[in-house]
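About this split. The held-out portion is used to measure sequence recovery: a designer receives only the structure tokens and must propose an amino acid at every position. Recovery is the fraction of positions where the proposal matches the reference. Here is one held-out target exactly as it appears in the evaluation file.
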């Protein structure tokens, strides 16, 4: 009876779920402290796909915002 697993089939699944959650929260905290970027849980997947590009854009973000875009 897996009473300590809280819906997971095994303790290994529980540890993997905890590891994934801890990794996610640490990355969100890192980006908030280091770069001042608030990432929500809903935005995390897309943000993690583009995080390396975002890291390079942040230093020139003010300049990019001033550019006018034409269609």
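Reference sequence for scoring:
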């Amino acid at each position: 009876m897996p009473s300590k697993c809280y819906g997971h089939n095994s303790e290994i699944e529980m540890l993997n779920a905890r590891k994934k959650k801890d990794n996610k929260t640490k990355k969100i905290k890192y980006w908030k402290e280091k770069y001042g970027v608030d990432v929500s849980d809903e935005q995390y997947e897309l943000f993690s796909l583009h995080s390396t590009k975002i890291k390079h854009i942040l230093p020139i973000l003010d300049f990019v915002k001033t550019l006018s875009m034409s269609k």
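Annotator remark: The CA atoms of residues 43 and 49 lie 10 Å apart.
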